[in-house]
Write a structure and sequence with these properties.
By secondary structure, the chain is mainly β. It has a single domain, classed as Immunoglobulin-like, CATH 2.60.40. The chain has 1 helix and 20 strands. Strands 13, 15, 16, 17, 19 and 20 form a 6-stranded mixed β-sheet that branches. A 5-stranded antiparallel β-sheet has the order 2-18-14-12-11, with no helix packed on it. A 5-stranded antiparallel β-sheet has the order 6-5-8-9-10, with no helix packed on it. The protein is globular. The two termini are 26 Å apart.
């Protein structure tokens, strides 16, 4: 059974008026992946500035941070999308929609719609959107950011598997893929990032179906620091790939999370 790192699952049936919902809870994680025109970088661990040191005692304050969004959701509504969210307390939410692919070309993050200062669920008609991959970014006041993936095919949207996850109080604080697609005609590499609440041994594995196609070396990582990896496209076939992270702390079972991205 797929393990989800969802801090709190809240039904959104009332918000989405009976439409099927898939929820995702995940904060934004800073990014410093420098994208070349063809992304010919060798895969591996990326050294980035701005990564903070672990706080005293070796653990972060993830469990005491102010999380404004309990959950987010998206469901197809005609040719558009019904966006929903549940807030913690008062405050407004802004939703941006980004397009990340066109045909077999990864185009980066191209914003195609913005909905500012929303207090309840709403529907986007999808007018002007072409077939391809998208993601929606939810931003609550206080700089909290969460994302979910969408794909438009034959003029209709559908939810895609998670490409971001978090568990605020477990050993893994945040786990994020740079985007829900990679590769394509320009062989765009994929950025992977994660952040720990406690020091741990971490292994990141790439799977296609039941087969392991890539494995990064296991490392001993500190708490309170963002770690980044880069997955090159060479040798990887088209289709969905699951990125699996295993976090092992002394005296405890491994915490495992899986995210999905598509090799175009």
């Amino acid at each position: 059974m797929r393990y989800r790192l969802t801090a709190l699952a809240v039904p959104l049936a009332a918000l989405l008026a009976g439409v099927g919902v898939v929820t995702l809870a995940a904060p934004g994680v800073e990014r410093c992946f420098a994208q070349a025109a063809t992304d010919a970088e060798v895969e591996g661990r990326i050294a980035c500035s701005g990564a903070g040191a672990a706080p005293p005692g070796g653990s972060s304050r993830a469990c005491t941070t102010n999380k404004r969004l309990r959950s987010i959701a998206a469901a197809r509504r005609g040719r558009g999308v019904r966006f929903g969210f549940v807030r913690r307390g008062a405050g407004k939410v802004t939703v941006d929609v980004f397009r990340v692919s066109q045909g077999r070309r990864v185009i980066g993050n191209r914003r195609v719609a913005r909905f500012s200062n929303r207090e309840r669920s709403f529907t986007w008609t999808g007018r002007g959107a072409g077939d391809g991959d998208y993601f929606a970014r939810y931003r609550a006041r206080g700089a909290e950011t969460r994302r979910l993936a969408l794909r438009r095919k034959n003029g209709r949207f559908a939810r895609r598997p998670d490409f971001e996850a978090r568990d605020g109080c477990g050993p893994l604080r945040a786990f994020k893929l740079e985007r829900p697609v990679f590769g394509g005609r320009t062989n765009r590499a994929l950025g992977i990032s994660y952040r720990l609440n406690r020091a741990a041994r971490v292994t990141v594995t790439v799977m296609r179906g039941a087969r392991t196609v890539r494995r990064f070396r296991t490392t001993s990582d500190r708490a309170g620091r963002t770690y980044r990896l880069r997955l090159a496209t060479e040798g990887l076939r088209r289709g969905d790939h699951r990125i699996r992270i295993s976090v092992r702390t002394p005296g405890a079972a491994a915490a495992v999370a899986r995210l999905t991205t598509a090799r175009l």
